[in-house]
Amino acid sequence: MTAITAIHTRAGRLLAGLLLLATALAASLSLGQTNLAPTTLMAALTAFDPSNTQHLIVADSRLPRAVIAGLVGAALAVAGALMQALTRNPLASPAIFGVNAGAVFAIVVASTVLTVSALSQLLWVGLAGAFGAALLVFGLGSAGDRGPSPLRLVLAGAAVSALFMAFTQALLVTNQQGLDSVLFWLAGSVAGRSLDMVYPTLPLLLPALALSLTLGRAINLLASGDQVAQGLGQNVVGLKLLLGVLVVCLAGTAVALAGNVGFVGLIVPHMVRSWLGTDHRWLLSGSAVFGAALVLMADTLGRFLIMPQEIPVGVMTALIGTPVFILLARRGLNHG
Amino acid sequence: MAKSLRVRAGPLAFALPGRTIAVTAALILVVAAVMLLSLSRGTVAIGPGTVLQALLGQAEGPEGFVVNTLRLPRTVMAFLVGAALAVAGLILQALVRNPLASPDIIGISGGASVAAVAFLSFLAPQLGAQWLPLFAIAGALLAAAGIYLLAWRSGVTPARLVLIGIGLSAAMGAATTLMITLSPIATTMTAYIWLTGSVYGSDWADVQALLPWLALLLPLALRHARAIDLQEFGDTLATGLGLPVQRNRLLLLVLSVALAGVAVAHAGAIGFVGLMAPHIARRLVARQFAGLAPVTALIGGMLVVLADLVGRTLFAPLDVPAGVFVSAIGAPFFIYLLFRQRF
């Protein structure tokens, strides 16, 4: 009851978010083609029995899926919040850095031209593509004598994304085999991955998340304007550079793990802002919690809508995200 | 040469500067040359002389068949599709007063894509492929209507129109992806090529289906040349000059959607033509719709003819969809535009 009585405070609201996340996690682990009872779930997690089919479902399918969905959601939402602070543009999201298109292109090249098929290898290829595209976008957005401006970054991102998309399409229409194997991945999916795929990304993902969450105060200062922040002794250029690197690490890993999961980085920070306020110390941790919960719920819901088939999580987040986005666009996007 | 040509024919009234006329004439010659090149290149190379003979119905043997039955409808189709997309983009850019707007950005291609892929996945086996354009056009119109209604809040502002368009595009993209991932691989490939945009396999029936639309819509657009020019000045000034802004905005939007819709319906979601062609046209001739429209149409048509030509010759025997090359030129062009803008 404490969470509900204290829901007017920010701590209470964040706690409510954690409860939501826990519920979403439990639902993701227990619901699907086979619904598992809470006791079975607990037993599978605490006293794993390799001969029990239900335990195997949890260990081989549900748990990796839930872990990836949660990590991807948290990473994308935090990346989005950082991006919106960095560009002072409420419509900014990781996709704008060209991260998604770059990762997709790299993976399609690797799987069609170089015939790499192991997901664990494709992960690194995708990450490299994300970094490459982000560097290109940043270079284009800041070239010339006027330096990087938010709008130039956004537009450079759109153009580079379109270019990579065109190359990806060219490769796929000339290679039917490739299309079949990467399409589900293109749509954004957390199905069929193993935890072995996640471990190598953790040394990148977890420090980036942790570091992002400690930057709240500095970002608040940045939000009051470059000159104010500079006057108060902040190293504005250094901070912006750090934020850019963090966005690419977070979003790049997320895209490499799960493919195109859109809208999370865009809408979660907005929803959290209206729930927890504009202070980045709260906004960032709130984004992590609610982002993870949103992707977990989207993935779980996607298992039921067109049974026995599944809707990929990237499609689900887009379908959930669009109404929110339209509401934001109609309201005029005045905060952020 | 006269300084300008005045046109007064019923509702059509405008003055075309001499430079505009000269540029248009020159472009027509260039387009004719490009089309001739497109007719002569391919798996079998045919000399320009033979092509001309074939066009006049005097070629003996297989050349006549290759030129008249295989290449000519495809080339004409590429030109018409490019022209329609380009003019749709020109109208839209005036309408939303943003030089970076294009039909694919505000969701028209997205709507057509959803409908087309739904048709290919669920209905094509029963109904036959000839119904595809109809579904795509309906999808484009529905999407545009949805965007317009969602953007309406005691009037439609250009910024809201674009924002809602981008949002709805993403949702429609997700729905398209969903259908593609769930359908069998043969459908997937057809749908994916359609999404990239291709004039592969166009025949005279396609041309016959597209041409009447353009013959109807392009003169209609010219008729509203003055209103289109006024829209660019902004709501206050246009209203002051006696233009019913909201009513005109709706009408022009319908025109733009219809033009883009019929083009996308026949050739798939070719991007960037609607963005690029108007920009190139504006650099060549005066900023005035009646003069810009033909130049834009010629440039747009030429772009797609060239993209198709490159796609089917450069990587032969592969037939790379025209949409790929339009994007490959379009994206750098977009970046160039970006650098010329002063932010």
TrEMBL record, chain A:
**What InterPro entries would the database entry show?**
ABC_BtuC-like, ABC_transptr_permease_BtuC
Q: What is its main location?
A: membrane
Q: Where in the cell is it found?
A: Cell membrane
- Keyword Transmembrane, does the record have it? yes
UniProt cross-references to SUPFAM superfamilies, sorted A to Z: ABC transporter involved in vitamin B12 uptake, BtuC
- Transmembrane regions: 67-83, 95-116, 122-141, 153-172, 202-223, 243-270, 282-305, 311-329
Establish whether keyword Membrane is in the entry. yes
Q: Which Gene3D superfamilies match?
A: ABC transporter involved in vitamin B12 uptake, BtuC
| Membrane topology annotation | Multi-pass membrane protein
User: Which keywords, in A-to-Z order, does the entry hold?
Assistant: Cell membrane, Membrane, Transmembrane, Transmembrane helix, Transport
**Similarity field:** Belongs to the binding-protein-dependent transport system permease family. FecCD subfamily.
**Name by which UniProt lists this protein:** Iron ABC transporter permease
Source species? Marinobacter qingdaonensis
Automatic annotation (TrEMBL), chain B:
Q: Where are the transmembrane segments?
A: 21-39, 76-96, 105-124, 130-150, 162-195, 250-277, 289-310, 322-339
Subcellular location(s) of the protein: Cell membrane
Topology class, membrane: Multi-pass membrane protein
Q: What keywords would UniProt list here?
A: Cell membrane, Membrane, Transmembrane, Transmembrane helix, Transport
Where would you say this protein principally sits, based on its record?
membrane
Q: Which SUPFAM superfamilies match?
A: ABC transporter involved in vitamin B12 uptake, BtuC
Q: Which CDD domains match?
A: TM_ABC_iron-siderophores_like
Q: Which domain of life is it from?
A: Bacteria
PANTHER family this protein is in?
FERRIC ENTEROBACTIN TRANSPORT SYSTEM PERMEASE PROTEIN (PTHR30472), FERRIC ENTEROBACTIN TRANSPORT SYSTEM PERMEASE PROTEIN FEPG (PTHR30472:SF24)
Family assignment from sequence similarity: Belongs to the binding-protein-dependent transport system permease family. FecCD subfamily.
Q: By what name is this protein known?
A: Iron ABC transporter permease
Q: Which organism is it from?
A: Marinobacter qingdaonensis
